[in-house]
Amino acid sequence: MESSEDGLNYSNNTNTLNPLQDLPALPAQSRIRRVLLTLRDTMRTTYNSFGLCRLYPRRPSFEPNQFVPSSLLAQTCPAASQGSDSPPQVSPPPYPFPNMTLYRLMSWMNTGSSRVSESKVAALVNDVILADDFDREHLMGFSVRKNLRELDADESGKKIAFPDDWIETSVTIDIPIRSKEEGPRPYTIHGFHYRPLLEVVRAAFADAQAAAFHLFPFKHIWKDPLDGHEERVYDELYTSDAWLEAQDSLHKLPKEFGCSLERVIAGFMLFSDATHLASFGTAKAWPLYVYFGNLTKYVCSSPTSGSCHLVGFLPSLPDNIKDILSNLPRMSKSGMASLHTHCRRELFHACWDILLDEDFLYAYRHGIVLKCADGFMRRVFPRIFTYSADYPEKALIATIKDMGLCPCPRCLTPKGFFNYLGLVRDMKSRMNTLRVYAVANIIKARQFIFTLGNTVDGAKVEDALGEGSWVAVLNQFAYKLGPFGLDPFRMLVVDLMHECELGTWKALFTHLMRLLYSLPEGVRLIAIFVWIEAIFRQVLTFGNGVIRRFMNNTSEMKRLAARDFENILQVFALIISFCAIPVFEGLLPPDHDAAVQSLLYHFAQWHALAKLRIHTDSTLLFLEETFKRLSTKLRKFRDHTCAAFKTVELPKETSARQKRSTQHSETNIGSTESTGLRAKKLNLNTYKFHAMGDYMRTIRIFGTTDSFTTQIGELAHRALKAFYPLTSKLDTPTQLAKHERRRRALRRVAQAGSIPPSISQLPIDISSSGHHHRIASSRNHPVALFTFLREHNNDPALKNFIPKLKDHILYRLRKLDVTYCDFTFSDEERRSVIIPNDTIYSVQMMQVHYTTYDMRREYDTVNPRTHAHVMVLSGETAPKHPYWYAQVLGIYHMDTWLNEGTQPVKERLEVLWVRWLALIRNHKSGINHARLPKIAFVEESDADAFGFLDPGQVIRGAHLIPAFNSGRGVSSLRHGRSVARPGGELDDWEAYYAGIFVDRDMFMRYTHFGVGHPAMLRRIARDCESVALGGMEGNVTGTSETDVGHNTHYDLEDERCEDIEDESEEDEDESEEVSDEELDGLDLEHAAEDIDEDGDEEEDDFDDLLSF
């Protein structure tokens, strides 16, 4: 590899010759050269209703989703005579129990919950006591302990466990000592619990879930209905380039002698992360999980699906090793710390040396014959694709120094150049300096340590390792699987949760808090933070856990998990979206205000794109463009806004530092540290900022980030944390393994007997998801129309209530287009509408079902009291914005008669009574302006301020956040109580922001890239100028008023921002045009400062705080 353009020599990284002789040998090449002509039987399926088709490089013989007709599947050989490595079948239930009653009771007990909650009691009643095969006589003489023993292994010695049972072994590492004469001292760590990886493969293919395995990779192709062009779709691992390349390499291998079976892949996706098992105490575990990429990510992301395979508990170094190290000859305190770190790395890879045993390596090269779900034999080859972990563990896996000079586990870009992110030189550096394992350097360094007695961090060892921040530990992934094509660095995929939501976004949010603390207003500052707390607490929740209620002390960031920082990002971009917000009004100069607004908008947009569950070529280009803009704005924010303020530690940071200093001084007499405030700067030279540039490449190789996010592993921790209270708190890994084994055994027994899932776990209403909406038909809350009007006779919201209702009914019964309700019916026509007893019926909730951008069915719950806002398609002929917004005041259903002289027509109708909101004129939104859509209630003087809406018009629930900078007022509705103000308030928020970043589907509805969205909606979004992509298209010319009431006071509100917007856009354009050469002097100075400042990036331990 040539040296980089910055003059760094990476020649040591290119030495891939492996001098070790015991590597698995590849087959020797024949002396006779042959030319192989490979004929591929490719197949392209027809397009489905979404415009998707599959392109198979080879005709598949099995397809789990029935996407391919059986007549097009390839014929395969049963190969019954060749035998199978599949595990034996389990005896049907109730084995090992004498009857179904005991089986059901023990199954309920081992569901993995430590608390007797309402749902647990309901499950006991529904799934056990009320079961048809339950018999109380079977419980005579029942003993929990006896049945648990029978579940583990019955007295006759006949086990129900499969061969993938737990094994406990010891791990031995060599501790080097500084002596040429005496060799390294072996040290044994006991209690490594694991399951053989090859047996896990056998068990997975024998599981009922194997019927959903994708054995043959394919490309997803999308034909856009708007213009007919085709694009590649990136979603699952089995549709990724990595799997296609692996399958192609597999077919190029020589066939096994006498074997004509199809060759397929078992795709490993590894997850590991240490976690605390309890809220108090030091109990922790370091589990290792395996998921199979053959299974769709929508199943793997569910912690109760059974797709998670717990395969081991990685041990940690025991406490007594410090005593051993301290007694070594010529051991200094700093040398002991380095040696302790070295032993920890050795232990980790020694465990993987055991996991990657000879059987697994043989299967990796030759495959194993297994019976697949369709009953046919195939030769299955395990392949490791991804390993998801946080950064410290990535450094362990990659055998590099944690936050060294080249801290990236995927490339050799120096840390000092990380702030070039987004520039051409940065992208070139990533591709030109990809890591290649320097095995010769590692072996040379280990000889210095173990043979010549040098210290693990000595000068000779460092010189032998060369550049690249390598450590003198043998990487088992590169050593054992590298010869078979595994890239141990490419598999270390990006981690959105730890690296962004708990990393870069947390760092930016923290520095924004420092900026506010740096303001000189003293007493006024206290009021600012009280105001911020009030803002976050007033943000409404949304969806099923999408935006949750914000906790107290958000600005202090106490006990915030990853989901909390994600919610802050989604909402903070809305709150700080305009220069007039009271936090910054009069405190920050206008150019700094504009920089913060633009930065937050682009960060939220990048986050939304990086987290998409399905990407196309167009969205990846959009992500790349957004990343470039975000990178420019981050540097501008650091160089201009941050440089204008003297920022210091937050009170929380000062307290934490002083606490650490006190603990350190207890063991180091005489060590003191200043108690003053330390200066703090925004540091872009961290790995987490650098990793933001790897998302585009990672998605193209492995698919979308939700397939390998560490959040999947965090969700798997739930089971262990539920098992832990059931243990004796002694020998925790052994007892956790026993509980996992019991649950796995019960699941397999249930599968063998085709026992249906628990009644308490079944969906409440499966059939309703296919309908647009669901409104209950309950008549428990009748509303007598004339009584209702008399009770609120002075309420302007009820003006013309009955005429508007009857006009709406006439539109519906006459089958007119309710999108354009611009026709007023006569009183005679209204009298033809008959509502029996003048009574309608109110319900509290409506479910709106919709198809997401990734073709899943989801629903929003609309409730007039808690989640009242909805969005509908714009009814304008040439809309500038694709949607209208409304607040639902009531949900009603009624029986209606239409008597127009012919046979009366009776029909049950469902209606929504709404209060309309309209876009604010002269407010620009979209990428070019870094603004969100801003709306306000239509004034009561407008005839269309209130009205009725067909529930079938609702697209989704909308997340509207008050524009706190605009305050509250009575400009749209007179002061006083009104049914239009369900909370009893006397006034309204003057304006709202449309939360386009509230979830991924919502964001995609403001673009035209949603594969699963209707073509009509996407066409309107594409043609609108005020949506998220307006700036990308370069056609933003302003907005025009909609058909639903714009008023003059809206025009004045945003005029004060016009000059600021124009000036900020000019500054941004100028900064984006600066060349790499012109940035050399500026950024290198900051690079040097950032390396000194926070050079050892802190990795906060949020594992015990994460719950999903």
Automatic annotation (TrEMBL):
Residue stretches spanning the membrane: 525-547, 568-588
Region (Disordered): 1-22, 653-674, 1033-1108
InterPro entries, per the entry: Plavaka
Regions of compositional bias (Acidic residues) in chain numbering: 1052-1082, 1090-1108
Coiled-coil spans in chain: none
UniProt biased composition (Polar residues): 9-19, 664-674
Highest taxon of source: Eukaryota
Keyword Transmembrane helix: yes
Record key words, sorted: Membrane, Transmembrane, Transmembrane helix
Protein name (Swiss-Prot/TrEMBL): Uncharacterized protein
